[in-house]
Design goal:
This protein is mainly alpha-helical and 333 residues long. It contains 14 helices and two strands.
Length: 333
């Protein structure tokens, strides 16, 4: 009985990733002691913030049975458009307004995806691939390619806020950024939405089977509209958080991070076929990706191996979920 319980626990993606993270931490710490330090730990956590926010939106889309590769373009478009507009009017108000304006832009861009997918029934991958390029082109055409380094004081001050600070032996100061609360807020919202609300159950049902969901009286159009609009809003939050974090706005930022973010969500247990996924698994997937990136830098592994590692993780994640689905089907017979 205990052996079966252990097997069931190991089948869960969250537990598998946790074990991998612990094993990887021990192994890399042996290879390079610099990995297991508070300074590097904070760097890894800092790297998780933006990707964790973006992954939350991707998780919603994957659970609903779709796929979104436009989230990075929506994130940078929303942030770049917001910062450009606020600089033009000399805005110096609270940072929450920056987030709200970006969210409205993200909502509009997400609505375009939602309309094409839910109303016109276009394939999700084709739509988001097309709109991703369209949003990038519009941004560069309408707003140019200027790198922005001037921001409202509230954004600059927010970027400097830390929960606590420490000084390394080298004299450099590091700490825990308050931006972690933005990530935790988004994660909590998505977790609560999926676990305790009717729309959350509809999203899971939609990803499980559109036909069955429709027979249950679930509106496919309304649910998909909600998912892609919310994904656009979450992407915008990630875009502004990125700008606040680095205090620089480059119109090409975040482009190219799609594979890493999707890999984190898939590794976390979200099935490409939909109907399955968790916030905890997604967060652990994001942490694992950040640890891999950090370890490759510390071990001086060439950056072009990064793509190999991420691709292998996606295949591993898909393979694990496929195996779990097969085992659950066999057990139900």
């Amino acid at each position: 009985m205990e052996l079966n319980s252990i097997k069931k626990a190991l089948y869960k993606n969250e537990n598998l990733i946790a074990i991998i993270i612990v094993a990887m931490t021990i192994f890399i710490s042996i290879m390079t002691p610099a990995f297991f330090t508070l300074e590097n730990l904070f760097d890894v956590l800092q790297a998780c913030i933006v990707n964790g926010i973006l992954a939350s939106g991707v998780l919603l889309v994957l659970i609903s049975g779709g796929i979104d590769v436009s989230f990075a373009s929506i994130a940078i478009f929303s942030a770049y458009a917001t910062c450009t507009m606020l600089n033009n009017i000399g805005y110096q108000g609270p940072v929450i307004v920056v987030y709200l304006i970006a969210c409205l832009i993200g909502l509009g861009l997400g609505l375009i995806n939602a309309s094409l997918i839910s109303i016109f029934k276009f394939p999700t991958l084709i739509v988001t691939l097309g709109t991703s390029n369209m949003y990038q082109g519009l941004m560069l055409t309408l707003m140019g390619t200027i790198i922005i380094t001037k921001f409202p004081d509230s954004m600059v001050n927010f970027s400097k806020m830390r929960i606590f600070e420490m000084t390394a032996a080298s004299g450099s100061v590091y700490g825990f950024s308050v931006l972690i609360f933005v990530l935790l807020g988004v994660l909590f919202f998505v977790w609560y939405l999926l676990k305790f609300t009717a729309i959350g159950r509809k999203i899971f049902a939609l990803g499980g089977s559109q036909t069955i969901a429709q027979r249950m009286g679930i509106s496919i159009v309304k649910t998909q509209m909600f998912v892609y609009c919310l994904a656009g809003i979450i992407s915008a939050i990630g875009g502004v958080t990125h700008v606040v974090s680095v205090r620089m706005m480059n119109p090409t930022d975040l482009i190219g991070t799609e594979l890493s973010v999707i890999a984190a969500v898939v590794i976390g247990g979200a099935r490409i076929t939909g109907g399955h996924g968790s916030v905890i698994g997604t967060l652990l997937g994001v942490v694992l990706i950040a640890m891999i990136n950090s370890s490759m830098v510390l071990l001086r592994i060439p950056t072009y191996y990064h793509g190999i590692a991420i691709g292998a993780l996606i295949i591993l994640g898909v393979g694990i979920t496929a195996y779990q689905k097969k085992k659950s089907s066999e057990n139900s017979i």
